[in-house]
Structures are given as structure tokens and as C-alpha cells.
Amino acid sequence: MFVFFISCGSTPGAIKNVEMSIEGMSCAHSCAPTIQEKLITLEGVKEARVDFNSKLALVSYDDGITNPETIKTAIESLAEGSYKVASTKEIAALPKDSVQ
């Protein structure tokens, strides 16, 4: 007799970091905070920082739970599609103090 255990959750993976350039942010007081709030609620996202001036989102995530494409889709689903992720690149780590 064989017994199989099926997990209902996701398997944790490596923590990875990504920098995303975002087009379409038009104001500092709501665009960046709106995107950041959305990102930190995504399953698997460990940390997210969005900076209006540099038009960047820096995201630390568990690659066993989510991925850059899912993060990109979440950003682009906001504000009736006003935001577009222009580029995505993996980075070694998030800067310690602020988005650069």
C-alpha cells in the first residue's frame, strides 16, 4: 500500500530580487504607494519598494511561490492598465536604504 501526501501550499524556493522599470506613474503621492501596496500583498513577495522619481520597483520574492511575470501582471492590472513594466532585471540584493 502506498500513501501519497499532497501539499496544499506552495514549496518555498530561493529568495530572488528583481528591479522593474515602470512607465505610467504620473504622481508621487498615489502611484508609487498604490503599486507598492499591491506588491506587498502578493503571495511570495517578501519586500517591495516603489520609487516615483526613479520609476523603479524593487521586489524581493520567493521563487517557489511567485515569479517576475506574476509580479509584472499585478502591476499592469492596476489603474485600468495605466502602468506598464518597461524592463525587468534580476539584481543581487535590494539596496539597504532606498530605491536607487
What do these coordinates show?
The protein is α+β, with helices and mostly antiparallel strands and 100 residues long. The protein contains 2 helices and 4 strands. It has one domain: Alpha-Beta Plaits, CATH 3.30.70. A 4-stranded antiparallel sheet has the order 2-3-1-4. A hairpin with a 4-residue loop joins strand 2 (45-51) and strand 3 (56-62). It starts with 14 loop residues before the first strand and ends in a 9-residue tail after the last strand.
Give me a quick take on this structure.
By secondary structure, the chain is an alpha+beta fold.
Write the layout of secondary structure elements.
Blueprint: E1 15-23, H1 31-41, E2 45-51, E3 56-62, H2 68-76, E4 84-91
Antiparallel strand pairs: 1-3, 1-4, 2-3
Structural domain count:
1
Strand line-up in the sheet with most strands:
2-3-1-4
According to CATH, the fold-level topology is Alpha-Beta Plaits
Overall geometry comes to: globular
Q: Tell me the major beta sheet.
A: 4 strands, antiparallel
The CATH class turns out to be: Alpha Beta
Order of helices and strands: EHEEHE
Question: How many strand elements?
Answer: 4
Which CATH architecture? Answer: 2-Layer Sandwich
Helix content: 10-25%
Sheet-strand content, in percent, reads: 25-35%
Give the N-terminus to C-terminus distance in angstroms: 57 Å
Number of helices: 2
Q: Give the mean pLDDT.
A: 90
Please tell me how large the radius of gyration is.
15 Å
Stretches where pLDDT is under 50 for at least 5 consecutive residues are: 3-7
